[in-house]
Q: What sequence folds into this?
């Protein structure tokens, strides 16, 4: 027999060998199932099961009666088995002609007619096309592997448990997951696939919980294997991971999980807990991924198969998946990358675009059970129109980068109605309190206001997944360019610079989930979150945590109905010294008074809750400071502050702030069981100069010297005192001068090793490891090393920490093990006046040659660069371009001819080369790069990806680049580092004062610091 015969209804269009390999591999000895004979009867159809149940109830007199509902459950299965046993049949619980005949011979009535199940595997091409339609963010090969292992692509396959369809969904499973019409899973391809995707999304959501709870990796093979493990038995994975957790074993890899679960001792215990042998599930997951891997290869080899309808859909590969919750419905990809324009109402000022963007959720209920989150029995379902509004105020001028506000509306029941779109919602003539566009316009800021249509209860679909959020934003950008910018032939908008999330009422829930998202590069751009009476549910701590871990972002919470939770957040923020949180609300009486002055408000029946967004929106866009004494009246006149630009916290300002009013104790969550081998570092016992006064030549010289072995523990002790004064017991306990220098360790960071003899303190190690984990998540790459390659521009250099002894630096954070130098060769320390002069001379030469603006290095960043990194990067680029001319004489010649500077124009090519080379040599010498001239020529003064520096700062480190030390990061804003920083500043100030005091007293000579000096110093000051 040939395969053509086997698959006679499915003519080959693909490589026949490929098809037949798969078929053979999967079906093996089950070939007879699909061929020749009749296809299998659908024994699982509800009317047949009902007949079985009825018959068994008649024939088996003992035991509990079966419910005659046509639903195949475990009781029915058990009854069938016991019937089979009783009459000497094979007790497999499966129905077939023999069991049926026996039932009839014992007195059962005639069974209903049976449908025949479809019996050949679906063509790969057809399947892939449909999978692409519905799979959302799930990688294609995972789904193919899943189907392959479950049904061998045979939609008609059923088991004795009545599992059905491509994904072999059990009736009970279908019921629990709200999959309607279980029988249809065997006949309708679309339904079968949509339901499978729905089920897998549910397993993904459960797996994500395990990621959070037990530190399971959130990507790669292990992630997907655990997803699959849920199909074996949904509670199984949690039970295994919980057991591992109590025994202190981390589920860091699949091997870790399987070797644990299959270890003889554990396996027995798990068997009891799960009531199944973990081996089964593990084997099935392994097989699924093996098949998926095969598919991945096939897909890569046959690109036409894997064609995707949407560029923003995930590419093939083992990429991370940050899936979402139950809420996720079937996703239908928007085919074109530029969203279609829909009709909608305009406002007087500015432009409104309504565009078609699906959120991967078609319908949503208007009522859910608060506990379970599931629709209540009386819930109604409403279609969510795939319409997002983009409002472009009149003041908007397209620039390369755009700032956007994403507004998430509240529940729609009261206003504007459950079925309403955003076009209905922000219709100010109908609902004056939702006239948001008018406020955006009045603010006169260069910002775009974006509002998607959400569900009746603000259901946001895949907007709250990393990929969904990223895809949404890229569609907004595409729409803005296509439907607005290009029409006025203005500059194309390339990037989103800053994102503000705003939400009213129930929109606060998706807002929080977006803010907390991991795995989206866009979340780094979230600079502010605005909650307008939106603190519902237990969210106070989560917002406080968010504010703590996003210290360069701001949180504004305005309340009316949500006063109590808002106030809790306010309290938490005060406790944690979170200066980036602003909570504000009115007393009800004040509000009532204010209402009297507002004609619009008086006319409307909507309560104050609905007015909260509009009251604060404009002042928020205009970046008015937090505490608002008096609330501005709603805009009827044009805003006055024309010149105010939307001021986002700049990276530089952020750090300046943190050194003054930092947010203590960075919220790091590290693996408590990880082992850090500890080492004691040897402190230098020789005395070094700490401070001096006077001039040695004149003989009026005072110098204070001390050994690091003495003053370093002294500073730790002082830090502990300050922490105790601040009531930070958990930090104080770590600041122990006796043990501090015994708790040093070595780690790898972003796949880079520490240089020989280099150590860091364990607190720094933990923070770095946490940061590393976040970076991996944000970039979604497969390993720490690959993440490092991206962030460190492929430099493989080792990292410096603290040296065992130090005879040079005095109070450096390196000495406490709380600093690292990264990419030393590509990031010099521009320190002295001489360094800066040398650098600026070269920058000037370069600018004169290349006819560009003369940039100069300054200690402070001013002018057009608000961001320190961008500023240094700009200088770096000038240098690199300049040095590059050494290797491209044609370019150089061109510049020489065009240069406006006679200095350059009169030079010959070789003279010009000599000049550039001498600039290079000279600067390399100043910046201690003389030995690495080649490297310096290529990388100049900065060699990081911007995300590295921004990320390091956002997650608790201070970048030395602010004062010229490009390679340096230390822990001064965070935890123990914050107190050591305070203590070392105090100590240094103290010894300097001592030196000056001794000089005034003419007590010249060499001293060691006086511990009791503070008192003397105060007395002297008082007398003077
Ligand atoms: Zn350093």
A:
């Amino acid at each position: 027999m040939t395969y053509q015969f086997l698959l006679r209804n499915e003519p080959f269009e693909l490589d026949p060998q490929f098809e037949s390999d798969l078929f053979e591999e999967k079906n093996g000895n089950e070939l007879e199932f699909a061929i020749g004979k009749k296809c299998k009867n659908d024994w699982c159809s509800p009317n047949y099961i009902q007949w079985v149940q009825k018959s068994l109830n008649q024939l088996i007199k003992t035991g509990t009666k079966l419910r005659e509902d046509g639903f195949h459950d475990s009781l029915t299965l058990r009854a069938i088995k016991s019937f089979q046993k009783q009459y000497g049949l094979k007790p497999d619980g499966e129905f077939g002609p023999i069991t049926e005949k026996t039932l009839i011979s014992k007195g059962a009535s005639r069974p209903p007619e049976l449908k025949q199940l479809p019996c050949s595997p679906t063509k790969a091409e057809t399947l892939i096309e449909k999978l692409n339609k519905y799979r959302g963010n799930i990688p294609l090969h995972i789904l193919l592997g899943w189907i392959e292992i479950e049904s061998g692509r045979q939609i008609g396959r059923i088991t004795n448990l009545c599992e059905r369809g491509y994904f072999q969904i059990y009736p009970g499973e279908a019921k629990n997951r709200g999959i309607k019409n279980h029988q249809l899973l065997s006949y309708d391809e679309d339904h079968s696939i949509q339901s499978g995707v729905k089920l897998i999304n549910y397993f993904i959501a459960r797996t994500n919980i395990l990621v959070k709870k037990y530190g399971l990796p959130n990507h790669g093979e292990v992630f997907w294997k655990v997803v699959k493990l849920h199909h074996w038995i949904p509670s199984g994975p949690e039970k295994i991971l919980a057991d591992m957790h109590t025994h202190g074993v981390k589920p860091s890899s699949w091997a870790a999980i399987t070797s644990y679960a299959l270890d003889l001792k554990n396996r027995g215990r798990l068997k009891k807990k799960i009531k199944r042998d973990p081996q089964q599930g593990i084997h099935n997951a392994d097989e699924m991924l093996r098949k998926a891997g095969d598919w991945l290869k096939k897909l890569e080899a046959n690109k036409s198969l894997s064609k995707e309808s949407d560029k923003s859909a995930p590419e093939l590969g083992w990429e991370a998946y940050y899936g979402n919750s139950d809420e996720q419905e079937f996703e239908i990809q928007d085919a074109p990358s530029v969203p279609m324009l829909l009709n909608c109402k305009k406002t007087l000022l500015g432009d409104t675009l309504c565009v078609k963007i699906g959120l991967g959720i078609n319908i949503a209920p208007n009522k859910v059970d608060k506990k379970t989150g599931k629709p209540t029995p009386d819930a109604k379902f409403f279609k969510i129109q795939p319409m997002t509004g983009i409002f472009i105020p009149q003041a908007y001028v397209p620039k390369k980068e755009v700032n956007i506000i994403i507004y998430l509306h509240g529940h729609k029941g009261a206003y504007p109605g459950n079925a309403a779109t955003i076009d209905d919602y922000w219709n100010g003539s109908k609902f004056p309190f939702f006239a948001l566009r008018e406020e955006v316009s009045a603010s006169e800021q260069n910002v775009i206001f974006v509002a998607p249509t959400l569900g009746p209860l603000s259901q946001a679909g895949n907007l709250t997944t990393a990929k969904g959020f990223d895809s949404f934003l890229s569609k907004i950008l595409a729409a803005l360019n296509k439907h607005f910018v290009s029409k006025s032939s203005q500059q194309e908008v390339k990037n989103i610079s800053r994102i503000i999330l705003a939400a009213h009422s129930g929109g606060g829930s998706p807002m929080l989930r977006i803010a907390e998202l991991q795995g989206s590069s866009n979340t780094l751009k979230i600079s502010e979150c605005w909650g307008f009476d939106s603190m519902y549910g237990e969210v106070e701590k989560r917002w406080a945590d968010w504010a703590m871990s996003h210290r360069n972002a701001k949180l504004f919470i305005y309340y009316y109905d949500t006063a109590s939770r808002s106030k809790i957040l306010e309290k938490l923020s005060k406790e944690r010294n979170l200066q980036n949180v602003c909570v504000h609300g009115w007393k009800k009486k004040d509000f009532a008074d204010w209402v009297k002055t507002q004609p619009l408000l008086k006319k409307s029946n909507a309560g104050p809750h609905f007015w909260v967004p509009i009251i604060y929106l404009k002042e928020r866009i205009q970046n008015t400071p937090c505490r608002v004494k008096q609330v501005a009246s709603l805009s009827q006149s044009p805003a006055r502050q024309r010149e105010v630009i939307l001021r986002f916290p700049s990276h530089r300002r952020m750090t300046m702030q943190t050194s003054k009013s930092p947010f203590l104790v960075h919220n790091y969550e590290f693996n408590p069981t990880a082992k850090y081998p500890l080492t004691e570092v040897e402190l230098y016992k020789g005395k070094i100069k700490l401070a001096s006064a006077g001039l040695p030549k004149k003989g009026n010289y005072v110098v204070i010297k001390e050994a690091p072995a003495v003053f370093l523990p002294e500073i730790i002790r002082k830090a502990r005192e300050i922490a105790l004064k601040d009531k930070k017991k958990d930090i104080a306990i770590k600041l122990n001068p006796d043990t501090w220098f015994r708790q040093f360790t070595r780690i790898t960071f972003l796949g880079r090793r520490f240089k020989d003899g280099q150590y860091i303190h364990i607190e720094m190690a933990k923070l770095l490891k946490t940061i590393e984990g976040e970076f991996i998540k944000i970039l979604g790459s497969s390993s720490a090393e690959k993440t490092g390659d991206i962030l460190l521009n492929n430099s493989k250099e080792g990292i410096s920490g603290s040296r065992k002894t130090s005879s040079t630096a005095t109070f450096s954070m390196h000495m406490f093990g709380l600093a690292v130098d990264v990419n030393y060769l590509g990031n010099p320390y521009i320190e002295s006046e001489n360094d800066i002069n040398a650098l600026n001379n070269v920058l000037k030469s370069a600018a004169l040659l290349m006819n560009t603006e003369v940039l100069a290095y300054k200690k402070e960043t001013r002018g057009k660069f608000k961001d320190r990194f961008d500023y240094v990067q700009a200088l770096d680029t000038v240098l690199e371009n300049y040095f590059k001319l050494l290797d491209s004489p044609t370019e150089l010649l061109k510049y020489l001819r065009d240069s406006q500077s006679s200095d350059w124009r009169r030079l010959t090519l070789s003279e010009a080369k000599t000049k550039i080379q001498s600039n290079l040599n000279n600067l390399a010498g100043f910046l201690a790069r003389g030995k690495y001239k080649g490297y310096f020529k290529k990388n100049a003064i900065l060699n990081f990806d911007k995300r590295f520096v921004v990320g390091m700062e956002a997650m608790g480190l201070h970048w030395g680049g602010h004062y010229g030390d490009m390679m340096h990061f230390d822990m001064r804003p965070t935890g123990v580092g914050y107190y050591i920083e305070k203590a070392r500043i105090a100590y240094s100030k103290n010894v300097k004062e001592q030196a000056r005091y001794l000089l005034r007293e003419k007590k010249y000579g060499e001293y060691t610091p006086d511990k009791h000096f503070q008192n003397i110093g105060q007395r002297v000051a008082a007398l003077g």
Notes: Confidence is low (pLDDT under 50) at residues 1-37, 306-336, 628-673, 1016-1024.
